[in-house]
Specification:
Layout: H1 19-33, E1 37-38, E2 41-43, E3 55-58, E4 73-77, E5 80-84, E6 91-94, E7 99-103, E8 108-110, H2 111-116, E9 124-126, E10 136-138, H3 166-185
Parallel strand pairs: 1-6, 2-3, 9-10
Antiparallel strand pairs: 3-4, 4-5, 6-7, 7-8
């Protein structure tokens, strides 16, 4: 009987003897890949004294007992190494980097880099859902917008603009001038 599709877990045949062996093998595979947390990634050779239960993401050209398992997840269990081939969408927490990574089918990509560089978003909802009529929506008790100070490369002025009408732009500009004049006097 073929293994399962996603995790390649061994199946138990109806007339199979020693079913516990197959069952225990499947449990070990599940234990190795569910809630995956690894010591580090890009590992090329086994650690000198591996800790029982430790897991590693192997690099592109591993050596020694890791040699045939480029890109695999290496798990040290019961005094031996077990290797898992990652599938698209697997997630792992890399302890040495304190980062969450996702396997894209080729490499493990950092999720934090995606979050840190969000650009050109169509909808943003904070505490509520955004929609086409309100692409930036926030449901909050308080917000804080602050100006980038001159010591940080800014002007020290916080400017908010809207392009809805000329009249609103006129009043907005008047408000800015009043605020600037008040700052100069202070």
């Amino acid at each position: 009987m073929p293994d399962t599709l996603r995790l390649a877990l061994p199946r138990i045949d109806a007339a199979q003897s020693q079913k516990h062996v197959t069952h225990n093998e499947a449990l070990a595979l599940i234990d190795a890949c569910v809630h995956l947390s690894v010591v580090d990634r890009g590992r090329l050779s086994p650690p000198a004294a591996p800790v029982e239960g430790s897991r590693y993401l192997l690099g592109a050209q591993p050596t020694g007992v890791f040699a045939a398992y480029a890109g695999a997840v290496a798990s040290f269990e019961d005094g031996a190494w077990r290797f898992l081939v990652p599938r698209i969408g697997w997630r792992a927490y890399v302890e040495s980097e304190t980062k969450l990574v996702v396997f894209d089918g080729t490499i493990w990509r950092s999720v934090s880099s995606d979050v840190a560089s969000m650009q050109n978003l169509q909808l943003v909802g904070v505490g509520t859902s955004a929609d086409a009529g309100n692409p930036l929506s926030a449901k909050l008790n308080a917000t804080l917008f602050t100006a980038l100070q001159t010591s940080e490369g800014g002007t020290g002025d916080f400017v908010s603009s809207s392009t809805s009408s000329r009249r609103e732009a006129f009043f907005r500009n008047c408000t800015r001038q009043i605020i600037r004049a008040a700052r100069k006097r202070a």
